[in-house]
Design brief:
The chain is of the alpha/beta class. Helix content is about 30%, strand content about 25%. It contains 21 helices and 55 strands. An 8-stranded mixed sheet has the order 14-15-18-21-24-27-30-33. A hairpin with a 2-residue loop joins strand 2 and strand 3. Helix 8 crosses helix 9, helix 8 crosses helix 11 and helix 20 crosses helix 21. The longest helix has 18 residues. The two termini are about 30 Å apart.
Length: about 850
């Protein structure tokens, strides 16, 4: 059997180390990652190997040649442009000569038993066998679910936490029969997991998964790269070291020179021709590359020093990486997690802060300090983005320099000369942050329309009129925190794939800058409240009789909706009593208890005024709460069913988009009017994106957010109020009577603590406990019992917790179901 080693990767997340060196050549214990892979292949008898190359391919060829030095036979298949994981192998088809083959990445560190993998493949008679491994955080990989017979049932690439249904991930190691290449088009980008495997599964071809027990690490981040060195030195991964174990865990190459007065604390590795001088201290989990000099009094701890570097007297590297040919002059210091690219020069007493990146060839002058710290979150793969964009307390969790980097990274995904709208609320934090955002956008050559203070739905609409937008609002319930929402050209939150690009650009500090004399233009745009009101009211005017005139009580909550309401209420045809109708900087947000108290006061006013109903807006203008004519609060689930009923009754059907956490009573209500429910994920923008599909007449989330597509494609509380007023005016009966006719719902939610590293195992435990119950994985894992009760298990995307939703015919049955699945979540999965 032959092997294919994928060695075309660029390794952008490992910059600056990979700017002039392809990822497969990055040294781990002073050997290229790919050399560890080739030695593994050789140990399992796979000596005839094709290497696919693309990025800096000449360096890979020069390093390994024909493979003779390793006792192997290597040939190369070059890609003129990236062809994807499957396209790369297709490009090597002639060299495979119609034989079965193993595919393995040349830039992942592993000691997986390939012989056992091949044996499993042959025993099952598989067309493809996918080698799988279990990892704590599966979101950066492709997760896989298997049937009882080991057949692959589903793949999902780089899921969000809500999509995680297992901790079993695709390692990119495969055993394949040659006919699988018939499914791959030549000379075009094709991916195994995204293109080929789904087609094979659809045709029922034998695709199996083999869960390997060995070590596997993608080595995709700086932290993982440093950890890989430690894993080799401690024997966690079986690897061949070209050195002598001079003391337990102390590996020294035969040609290295170590002074008797040097202090060595294993595990560590000293490479060929390296020199450790007297008084130098080399601590645990350190690798000193070939030809490197560690001078007197230098101190290395958990350090990775590439070949041909010089660490001068008194210099220190603790937890950092020093690139090849770099020089640290006396008393220079490199901090924890910092990375120097190749050929850097740190002059005397200079320092590089924790987490800072210094690109190749740079010089840090004497006694200068590089202080461009990365923001290290509790977990290594954390994103800047959460459910409400990028959030944090102003000046501490969200310092202004981070705002500049974030905005600059966002500008980098936009075309030059892009037109971006910027809006904010009336909070002091937003007033501080918004000008910083505007300046950073203009510095990147982006034209800015400053909308000032407007409700979020209006800001989204203005963003859609250009190339995107930035909206700064107060975090609900946290007065000193702000949310920065970055919008795309549709006015929607950026998709996760784009968020990842921005995360990477912020981490690598790769920003676009405009010439100082040609910044982006700035235009201050007056809020067009009348035009907004005209659009809403025109859309609600169907030409039918206006219906009865309603009296309503409107609570603007001192937020930005107060700016819009005067232009709407006077022409809506209702008798309105408005409270809290002025901007109040002291009431820019509220806690749940404060909101409940405000609704109680609203209920009193509604009943006292004999109004038809009351409505209270949130601070951003995206959500509303309802109070009926008796002064009773209509809870979110009931309000959702009410709006669903009214809208679909008038529309005579259509599709409604609801999150999968919602009550299935919605299907009963929708069916009354021949409407159909489209269940979506719970991500903040999932409903808005679903509204773009044909035939969707309504969307809502059960928490006061409603989308009426013919009025606005976004959650818009004013639009929902206008539509509700119109529909109630044309409907017989009071609001409480309409609500009473709706089906009863018993949906309850529970939150359980879960460490980040346990979430994948928890979801696997849930998947294993499903048995023969019906399941859907629109978001998380929703399990349907035989009596139609259901429970949804969903990992939180931004907190160390797991959420459970359940629905049943009565509260007691729902609580029993939550108790049962809480026990599953709390029980560790079987290894």
């Amino acid at each position: 059997m032959k092997a294919v080693v994928m060695a075309g990767g660029e390794g952008t997340r490992l910059r600056p180390l990979t700017l002039h060196l392809p990822k497969p050549l990055l040294p781990v214990a002073d050997q290229p990652i790919m050399e560890h892979v080739l030695r593994l292949l050789k140990r399992h008898g796979l000596t005839d190997t094709v290497v696919t190359v693309q990025y800096l391919s000449a360096l890979v060829r020069d390093r390994f040649g024909d493979g003779g030095q390793l006792g192997m036979s290597l040939s190369y298949a070059e890609e003129e442009h990236p062809l994807g994981t499957a396209g790369s192998v297709k490009n090597a088809e002639e060299q495979l000569a119609g034989e079965p083959f193993v595919v393995i990445s040349g830039d992942a560190l592993t000691d997986i038993d390939l012989t056992a993998l091949i044996g499993f493949h042959r025993q099952r008679g598989a067309l493809v066998t996918v080698c799988l491994s279990r990892v704590p955080d599966p979101r950066e990989f492709g997760i896989t679910i298997l049937g009882a017979d080991g057949r692959v049932e589903r793949f999902l690439e780089k899921p969000a936490w809500g999509q995680v249904f297992s901790d079993t991930v695709n390692t990119g190691i495969y055993v394949m029969e040659p006919e699988v290449l018939d499914y791959v088009d030549a000379d075009v980008p094709v991916d195994w997991s995204g293109d080929v495997f789904p087609r094979l599964l659809a045709e029922g071809r034998p695709v199996y998964g083999y869960v390997a027990e060995g070590y596997w690490e993608d080595v995709g981040t700086h932290a993982a790269y440093v950890q890989a060195q430690a894993d080799v030195l401690t024997g966690r991964v079986a690897a061949e070291l070209d050195a002598v174990e001079a003391a337990p865990g102390v590996w020294i190459a035969k040609t290295a020179q170590v002074d008797m007065d040097a202090v060595l604390e294993g595990p560590l590795y000293v490479g060929e021709h390296a020199r450790i001088e007297a008084g130098a201290r080399v601590g645990g989990h350190t690798v000193v590359g070939a030809h490197t000099v560690v001078d007197r009094g230098a101190w290395l701890e958990r350090a990775v020093v590439h070949p041909h570097a010089y660490v001068g007297p008194g210099a220190q590297v603790r937890g950092g990486v020093v690139g090849a040919n770099s020089t640290l002059e006396p008393c220079a210091r490199v901090g924890e997690g910092a990375v120097l690219g190749a050929g850097c020069l740190l002059r005397e007493e200079s320092s590089v802060a924790d987490g800072a990146l210094v690109y190749p060839g740079k010089t840090v002058e004497a006694r200068a300090h590089v202080d461009q710290c990365l923001i290290w979150a509790p977990r290594a793969t954390a994103s800047l983005f959460g459910p409400r964009g990028v959030s944090g307390r102003v000046a501490t969790e969200l310092p202004l320099d981070l705002v500049v980097r974030l905005t600059s990274a966002y500008a980098g995904i936009l075309p030059c000369g892009a037109d971006v709208a910027v809006a904010r609320d009336h909070s002091p934090g937003a007033q501080l942050i918004a000008p910083v955002v505007i300046s950073a956008l203009r510095a990147a050559g982006v034209d800015v329309r400053d909308l000032g203070q407007v409700p979020v739905p209006l800001a989204r609409g203005r963003a859609a009129a250009g190339d995107g937008g930035v909206v700064v609002t107060t975090t609900p319930g946290v007065p000193d925190s702000v949310d920065i929402a970055l919008l795309d050209g549709q006015g929607l939150d950026l998709p996760q794939s784009v968020q990842r690009k921005i995360d990477r650009a912020v981490a690598l500090r790769e920003f676009r800058r405009a010439p100082a004399d040609r910044p982006g233009r700035l235009e201050t745009v007056p809020a067009a409240w009348e035009a907004y009101a005209d659009r809403l009211l025109a859309a609600t005017d169907s030409g039918a009789e206006p219906g009865r005139r309603l009296k309503v009580v409107v609570d603007a909550a001192g937020g930005s909706t107060a700016l819009v309401l005067p232009a709407v209420l006077g022409r809506l045809g209702v008798e309105a009593l408005t409270v809290n109708g002025g901007l109040d900087p002291q009431r820019r947000t509220e806690t749940a208890d404060e909101r409940a108290a405000a609704l109680h006061r609203l209920g009193f006013l509604v009943s006292r005024a004999r109004a038809a109903f009351g409505v209270r807006f949130d601070a951003t203008g995206e959500r509303l709460s309802l109070v009926d004519e008796r002064g009773r609060v209509v809870d979110g689930d009931r309000a959702l069913l009410l709006m669903l009923h009214l809208v679909t009754a008038e529309a005579g059907g259509g599709r409604v988009a609801l999150p999968t956490t919602g009550s299935r009573a919605a299907e009963q209500v929708a069916s009354r009017h021949t409407a159909r429910v489209l269940w979506t994920a719970t991500a903040p923008d999932a409903l808005a994106r679903a509204v773009g599909e044909a035939g969707v007449v309504f969307a809502g989330d059960g928490e006061g957010s409603f989308i009426l597509p013919r009025l606005s494609p976004y959650p818009d509380a004013v639009a929902a109020f206008v539509e509700l007023s119109r529909l109630l005016a044309r409907t017989a009966g009071t609001l409480s009577e309409l609500v009473a006719r709706l089906p009863r719902t018993f949906v309850r939610r529970r939150e359980l603590p879960a460490d980040w590293q346990d979430k994948g195992r928890i979801m696997r435990a849930v998947a294993e406990a499903v048995g023969d119950r019906a399941v859907d994985t629109v978001d998380g894992i929703r399990v349907v019992e035989s009596d139609s009760r259901w429970v949804l298990v969903l990992p939180d995307s931004s907190a160390p917790s797991v959420h459970l939703w359940a629905e049943g015919p009565d509260p007691a049955s729902v609580d029993r179901l939550l108790d049962e699945w809480s026990a599953v979540v709390g029980r560790p999965a079987v290894a």
